Amino acid sequence: MPVPTHRPLVVRGPLAQPDGPTAADGTVLLEEGRVRYAGPATDAPKAPDHALELEVEGTIVPGLIDAHVHLTCDGGPDLLAEVDGRGPAELTAKALANAWRSLARGVVAVRDLGAPCGEAVAVANAVRSGRLRGPEVAAAGRALTAPGGHIPYLGRVEQGVDAMARAATEELAAGAVGIKLIATGGVLTRGVPIGNVAYDEDELAAASRVAREAGAWVAAHVIGLEGTKRAVRAGATTIEHATFVDDEAVDLIRDRGVVTVGTLSALHAIVRHGRAGGVPEESVLKAESVLDVHTDSLRRVADAGLPLATGTDAGTPFNPHGGVATEARLLVQEIGVPPAAAFRAATVDAARCLLRDDLGRLVPGGPGHLVVVDGDPRDDVTALERVRAVVWGGLPIDVGLANLLPLS
Ligand SMILES: [Zn+2]
């Protein structure tokens, strides 16, 4: 990734990572936008004379990652109204603003899982080229959904083995780095039952094969149990929501090395704010009906020792961008994972969803993205909600007062 040349940066303070060197007295040296050193201060190489030196109050951690967002949506009460009747120019402007909001909260990379057109790909390109300060964006382009299926307005309607393969090829050619499959019904599309099966297994497999052969990830939206199993068998690399998971599904998830993205934030926001906030009643009822079984399913995944990556589904009702720390806290509060595991979910496990082993950790040669938080997230996950400083690509980011304001 090309980054503008700038001064080397030395950041000193306690260093905490789920996977990588840690130190009570740590030093991170960033040069040319990348990590040159991260570890104990005593072993740090001498910084160049013109380096900028920062002594921080707080804990240095790797930048956070959101494995499931919709950049074209702001988090208003009606998902359809976010995009309906708006052209690509307006939607791209929304996506740029939401990308910035994420970075201000310490989110250094996001995976966009469905947009009406090429908006998220445009933001990805703007960040990559250095024109825009924002998180790295890994975009799926348009989601593939069946006729009469979930969120056609954030995707393209496709059916049949050949059409699915062609659609995946076209999205990748248009700049997507992964494919989103809507394998079941969902909460937010009116008239679509929540857990119905949307595709035959061979349709899902056709699109997955194209993506995997291109080295791309495959994210499958799954609410129902049968759709979940089909998606995993068909080659999904991540399952989104994972509302119904039984023991057989856990075995499949383990055998295929699939990462689960729970999106607790989305469901909890609808249940908490939906009725008073004007979310369509049908969606509120659907969300309420699956809250408990969703919690049980994610516990089953966690209890089996399988990864649960943070993905917020940001852009859905009352779920604004930048809430990775909230998702990590919900993993602790609702699912019962230890704080250290939630920290891992928000960094290395989320990086796995992007097929990136250089994100979510500070290691030599990796991107120079780090965050300073108030507290140690290995003991107290809420530390991630108190972002004090953000460095992206070796550059300190002026986030102003953004991270002092309440998220919603
Ligand atoms: Zn989503």
Q: What does this protein structure show overall?
A:
The chain has 408 residues and is of the alpha/beta class. The protein has two domains: 9-62 and 360-404, Urease, subunit C, domain 1, CATH 2.30.40.10; 64-353, TIM Barrel. The chain contains eleven helices and 18 strands. It has helices spanning 79-83, 88-104, 119-128, 161-173, 201-213, 225-234, 247-256, 264-277, 281-303, 324-335, 339-353, and strands at 9-15, 23-31, 34-40, 52-55, 59-62, 64-69, 107-112, 136-139, 143-145, 155-157, 178-182, 217-222, 238-241, 259-261, 308-309, 370-373, 387-392, 395-397. It has a five-stranded parallel sheet. α4 packs parallel to α5 (201-213), α8 runs antiparallel to α9 (281-303) and α10 (324-335) crosses α11. Residues 68, 70, 113, 313 line the site of zinc ion (ZN).
Question: Features of this protein?
Answer:
single chain; 408 residues; alpha/beta; Urease, subunit C, domain 1; TIM Barrel; 2 domains; 5-stranded parallel beta sheet; 4-stranded mixed beta sheet; 11 helices; globular; binds zinc ion
The oligomeric state is single chain
Radius of gyration: 20 Å
CATH superfamily of the largest domain: Metal-dependent hydrolases
Spatial strand arrangement across the major sheet: 11-12-13-14-15
Q: How many extended strands?
A: 18
| Sheet of most strands | 5 strands, parallel
Coarse morphology: globular
Class from secondary-structure proportions: alpha/beta
Find the CATH topology of the largest domain: TIM Barrel
Unreliable residue runs: none
CATH class of the largest domain: Alpha Beta
Strand content: 15-25%
DSSP helix count?
11
Name the helicity range.
25-40%
Distance, first to last CA: 33 Å
Order of helices and strands: EEEEEEHHEHEEEHEHEHEHEHHEHHEEE
Question: Judging by the overall fold, what is the CATH architecture of the largest domain?
Answer: Alpha-Beta Barrel
Average pLDDT reading: 94
